[in-house]
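Thread: "does anyone have the structure for this chain?"

Original post by V.I.:
We have the sequence but no experimental structure in hand. Need at least a predicted one for the grant figures.
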Amino acid sequence: MAPRLFIDRPEGALSGMPKLIALVFALSMLSIGAAQGQDESLAERYQLGAGDVISIRVFGEEDLSIERIRLSDAATVAFPLLGEVTALGRTPLELEAVIRDRLSGDYLINPRVTVNVLEYRQFYVNGAVSSPGGYAFEPGMTVRRAIALAGGTTDRASRRNMHVISEDDPEGEERQVSMDDPLDPGDILTIEESFF
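Reply from O.Q.:
Generated one for you, tokens below.
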């Protein structure tokens, strides 16, 4: 029989450990849930446009599935059996419904369709940054992260005079932003120079 090893420990020294582990686990799940909630809200409100890369899956129908396609300038998809399908201005869920409805009846019974955004279209950073230009959007993008991607601000950059023109604003009006404001795909962020 193998000898037993006894460790002398103060009474109750580890009694709080299960509670601590449970607390750490709960906090980590909350942070994951918050990040997923942000991504889900973007997926629900995100309107597709030219330059987005999407996948379209019709379950059980590999011939009708598209693994990867970049939306054309008109934001349309050449879809098997259906021809051109317009994605412009539709959310992924709306595009799913359009494809599902058009496939139902004549082609398939109760098709299951999913549309996923694989790559979002670019946003743009202009003005007093080291490397102005277009950058790949990622969910959770903020003004601060965009400036970092653009190589940081120049010595003359203003921290107070930053504005965004949203792609979906028909008037193209500038709105003032701060460092932690969110950005969307297609946004144009401009960092003005400070004269003081």
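V.I.: this helps a lot. The longest strand covers residues 157-165.
O.Q.: and DSSP finds three helices and ten strands in the chain.
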